[in-house]
Design brief:
Elements: E1 8-9, H1 13-32, H2 34-51, H3 53-72, H4 89-99, H5 104-118, H6 129-142, H7 145-163, H8 172-175, H9 177-180, H10 187-223, H11 229-249, H12 252-276, H13 279-295, H14 297-301, H15 312-315, H16 317-326, H17 328-337, H18 344-375, H19 381-388, H20 390-398, H21 404-433, E2 443-444, H22 446-466, H23 470-496
Parallel strand pairs: 1-2
Helix pairs in contact: 1-2, 1-10, 1-22, 2-23, 3-7, 3-18, 4-18, 5-6, 5-18, 6-13, 7-16, 7-17, 7-18, 10-11, 10-16, 10-20, 10-21, 10-22, 10-23, 11-21, 11-22, 12-21, 13-18, 16-23, 19-20, 21-22
């Protein structure tokens, strides 16, 4: 963000109020009747993942096919504009490398193996040798090309709009002009934008809902303060206050500085764990898991568990696809924005594999360190997980690291900054979409940005109030379904319509 200009666009009330009121009403109903809220959550999750889950799997495979088409097809050598690249190749790859990960990567990379080990796929016996084979392999699959690829193909389309057609695209409806025509700025376009906003809100609320309890558990471990819903609420309030101050006081440079701190601290911490951890085991188990994942790619891609109906693919693969998808449009816009002058092939390869390698690094280090802690019985991960929850188990695993009283505060800083940046960027995006036409030099209204930040916090807190992982999974999956439809429409319009690249 840059507040050099005092010009601020007016709010588009048709885009601002419907999603805002829908989220407020949802939060109110859940708080007033938690039991009904839980029942509704379970029903929605069952419908979206059970009855419609296969559509996510087909869409992701089609998306991978589209990426391959962009890499090897007739557009591969086309460029995003005639200008030279804005960033050097090394800087660009570094930006891509850090673009797709939030603070929740620390949580999943540390504990995801245990979910798959204790509740493995394909009806396998928990904690069996076969379950061990899949425990890391499934993580690499879920965080691989299928998930990160959702940002890439749509990024190519936005890159074409930005740098070839010279369009200022900050709403999905604008990208649908090819086949909607004048209706893109009418009621049909408004509906598309509202569904997009709801999807983004659902996705980021899942991120906040997963990140907040981890910070609370870290604070509890460091200070002894009891972890309660009140502590979670206080953390979200602090995030909102920081964002409010940044909007009115121009602290964007400070936020950018903190973002850089997050990058250096994060990868510095990984290097530290590599040096003090079981390095040989990390490498051996990572490549073993990678081989299993690659060898069974199609089996995992189309796994629906129609006979046993354990819910494994619905609760994991489809959930992760949905979560990635909820961020696909906004992340695709960002990736395209920083890729001026790049060829389509450069972008597709760079954006896909930078994101995947970044995630794999976290899982290779944190995941395998956790597995070694579990195998060596340094702590009773199973008992902690069952008695106190996944977040406590994660913190206790981190506490086994050397210099833990230094390492734990670093984790607090990393996750706090990461989540604050997510709130900041998504609130800004929502404010842009819900503004009237933004002219050059204009910013979305400050009040609008603050309102969206508060709404994100309130929904996250409401989902945590319901308790457990299921409400967060439901938020991501339900919110992403209309996003999948919107992405399909954008791809259809791009591929069918006449292009300057043709």
């Amino acid at each position: 963000m840059n507040d050099k200009s005092n010009n601020q666009a007016e709010i588009d009330h048709m885009l601002f109020w419907p999603p805002l009121l829908a989220i407020v009403l949802l939060c109110a109903l859940i708080v007033l009747n938690p039991e009904a809220g839980n029942n509704a959550v379970n029903s929605v999750f069952a419908v979206v993942t059970g009855k419609l889950g296969w559509t996510y799997e087909i869409f992701v495979l089609a998306n991978i096919g589209l990426i391959l088409y962009f890499i090897f097809g007739k557009y591969a050598k086309k460029r995003f504009g005639d200008e030279k690249p804005e960033f050097s190749t090394l800087t660009w790859l570094g930006m891509l490398f850090t673009a797709g990960t939030t603070g929740t990567i620390f949580f999943w990379a540390t504990i995801e193996f245990y979910y798959f080990l204790s509740g493995p796929p394909f009806g396998l016996e928990p904690f069996s040798p076969e379950a061990w084979d899949w425990s890391m392999a499934y993580s690499l699959f879920n965080w691989g090309i299928g998930g990160y690829g959702l940002y890439v193909a749509i990024g190519v389309v936005f890159g074409y709009f930005f740098f070839v057609q010279k369009k200022e695209v900050f709403r999905p409806s604008t990208a649908c002009e090819t086949f909607l025509g004048k209706h893109a700025s009418g009621a049909a376009g408004k509906v598309i934008d509202i569904f997009y906003m709801i999807g983004v809100i659902a996705g980021v609320s899942t991120s906040i809902g997963l990140g907040t309890p981890i910070i609370s558990e870290l604070i509890t471990k460091i200070s002894g303060i009891q972890h309660t819903l009140g502590l979670d609420a206080a953390i979200i309030v602090i995030w909102t206050i920081i964002f409010t101050i940044s909007v009115y006081s121009g602290l964007e440079k400070g936020i950018a500085f903190l973002s850089n701190v997050r990058v250096y601290l994060g990868y510095g911490l990984l290097i530290f764990i590599i040096l003090v951890g079981p390095t040989t085991f990390m490498l051996n188990n990572f490549f073993d898991a990678l081989g299993i994942s690659l060898n069974n790619f199609m089996r995992m891609s189309l796994y629906t568990d129609a006979h046993l109906q354990t819910g494994f693919p619905q609760g994991w693969t489809i959930f992760f696809y949905a979560w990635f998808m909820s961020f696909a449009l906004s992340t695709g816009i960002y990736l395209a924005r920083i890729s001026k002058g790049r060829t389509v092939r450069e972008f597709a390869l760079g954006a896909t594999f930078s994101g995947v390698l970044s995630a794999y690094l976290y899982f290779a280090v944190l995941g395998n360190y956790s597995i070694q802690i579990f195998n060596d019985q340094v702590i009773d991960v199973t008992k902690i997980f069952n008695d106190f929850g996944a977040q406590r188990a994660v913190v206790e695993i981190w506490n086994t690291l050397p210099l833990s009283m230094i390492v734990l505060p670093i984790f607090v800083i990393l996750i706090f900054i990461s989540t604050a940046n997510v709130i900041n960027s998504v609130a800004y995006t929502l404010a842009m979409v819900s503004s009237k036409e933004l002219k050059y030099g204009e910013e979305p209204g400050k009040l609008s940005r603050i309102v969206w930040a508060v709404i994100l916090g309130c929904l996250s807190l409401t989902l945590m109030f319901l308790g457990g992982l299921k409400p967060l999974q439901t938020s991501a999956t339900a919110g992403s379904f209309p996003t999948m439809i919107i992405m399909g429409l954008i791809f259809y319009g791009f591929l069918k319509g006449p292009k300057q690249w043709d």
